[in-house]
Amino acid sequence: MSNLYIMRHGETVPGMPDSERSLTKQGEAEARAMGTWLDSMLANDVRAALRIVASPYRRAQQTAQWMATPLERPVETLPIITPDDPLEPLIDWLQQEVAHTPCLLVSHMPLVGALVGRLVEGDVRASQPMPTATIAKLEADIWAAGCATLKHWQSPRELLG
Is the pTM of this model over 0.90? Predict the structure, then answer.
């Protein structure tokens, strides 16, 4: 059984180009709170093995860095997880790269919502709403459509009040 933490980046400023948008002060607070929360939730062995993988877009990289700091883990960039990328290459990547390794994936809507929906419900039309900086914890023996279980859902709103 392996764990996948799927996270949407924190709140972001508007603007163009989309790939260069940054976190707002609220987005930084969201990411910082979620990093502290996840650090408190993980067992030491899971934390030591955790891979943090982020979209190359600025806001996802910033969010991942806020997550990485309390977890003391490096951030990897995965170019196939930008907002409108297809799910199939990502699911293939999950099967190959994180079959037995816990992973925090930091990306964007609609990709994160569609990924949770596909892995849990198995339906290509399924999508889960994901407010900014929310984390969905999934467990599975294999990362394929309909094979995961949603084990936990955490929003920064519950932590920040």
Answer: yes
CA–CA dist 123, 107 (Å, integer): 20
pLDDT, average across residues 94-113: 95
The pLDDT, as a whole number, for residue 154 is 97
> Which domains does the chain carry?
2-160 (3.40.50.1240)
Q: pLDDT at residue 101 above 80? A: yes
Tokens of 33: 């709170």
33 CB neighbour count, 10 Å cutoff:
21
Average pLDDT over every residue of 3-26: 97
- Binned at pLDDT 50, 70 and 90, residue 125 comes out as confident
Distance CA 39, CA 158 (A): 16
Closest CA to 155 of 132, 127, 128: 132
For the chain, the first-to-last Cα distance in angstroms comes to: 33
Q: What 3-state DSSP class applies to 54?
A: strand
Cross-strand bridge partners of residue 153: 136
**Does 79 sit behind a cis peptide bond, omega within 30 degrees of 0 on the bond before it?**
no
| 57, pLDDT greater than 80 | yes
DSSP label at 72? Answer: T
- Closest Cα partner for 90 from 3, 13, 6? 6
